[in-house]
Amino acid sequence: MAVESPVKEDEAKERERRILFVGAKAAAIAGVVVGGVVVGSQFLIGTLYSGAQARQLVLAMASPVGTLATAILSGSAGILALMLTMLSLSRNLNQDLSGAFYIRIQRIALIAIVDMVAAITLMLMLSTPIQEASRQAEQAGELQVKLTYYFLVSLTALVSGLFVAVIVMLYNAVQAVIQAVAPNSSP
After folding, report:
1. C-alpha dihedral (30, 162, 150, 68), degrees to nearest 10
2. Is residue 165 situated within a structural domain?
3. Running DSSP on this structure, what letter comes out for residue 128?
4. Per-residue pLDDT at 170 exceeds 90
5. Is residue 61 part of a domain?
6. Which one in 5, 78, 146, 161 has a CA-CA gap of 20 to 30 Å to 114?
7. Which helix (H) or strand (E) holds 112?
8. pLDDT one-digit tens code per residue, 112-123
9. 6 in helix, strand or coil?
10. Dihedral of CA 129/130/134/135: which sign?
11. Would residue 4 count as lying in a domain?
12. Which residue from 131, 158, 183, 136 is spatially nearest to 34, judged by alpha carbons?
């Protein structure tokens, strides 16, 4: 068995760090773009001038955002289950996968779990009786309804952006497994 020189080993570690950084950067950019689209669409709607407008928008977005949160929760749970399968497969490979691969898997799992918690929070917020809460907020003042609207938009942007980031990171992890199984294949 040939022993690699320390220089080649350092070069390999530097290459792994670079690949890990580029993959994380791509995922972050994708997540920020998607989150920005959600927040940007809110700015296209315009500034809320009254609690009545905010109430109407919250009621209008409750069903689609609830569906989105459910889909993201299901998707994140499926991704975590498939990650376990990927780890099992990686253990059975004759080739050793790099440490960067396992760091990438840990990051994907962490972001998927944060996304699941955010999606559950979004679903809980939407499960409150919005019309009744809106009437009570009208009596208390418009600020509460506006804050609820902006919080829902922000949380929707966060959940969407995180999910896209997980998908991009998952693509990079799958590419690493493919390169380990068939090193001569090109993407």
Report:
1. 100
2. yes
3. S
4. no
5. yes
6. 146
7. helix 99-126
8. 999 999 999 999
9. helix
10. negative
11. no
12. 158
Residue with tokens 């396992």: 102
Token digits for 17? Answer: 């760090």
pLDDT digits over 79-98, tens only? 999 888 878 877 776 566 77
pTM score over 0.70: yes
In whole angstroms, what is the distance from residue 182 CA to residue 112 CA? Answer: 28
Confidence (pLDDT) at 168: 87
- Average pLDDT of the residues in 93-113: 80
pLDDT at 1: 45
How far apart are the C-alpha atoms of 40 and 97, rounded to whole Å? 40
Longest dimension (CA), the chain: 78
Nearest to 80 by CA among 56, 102, 108: 108
Q: Which domain holds residue 93?
A: 52-178
CA distances to 9, 15, 114 from 2, in Å: 13, 20, 43
Tally of domains within the chain: 1
Token pair, residue 181, equals 């199984």
Average pLDDT, the chain: 78
What is the reported pLDDT for 77? Answer: 94
Percent of the chain with pLDDT over 90: 18
Residue 60, in any domain of the structure: yes
List the one residue out of 125, 187, 172 whose CA is nearest residue 24. Answer: 172
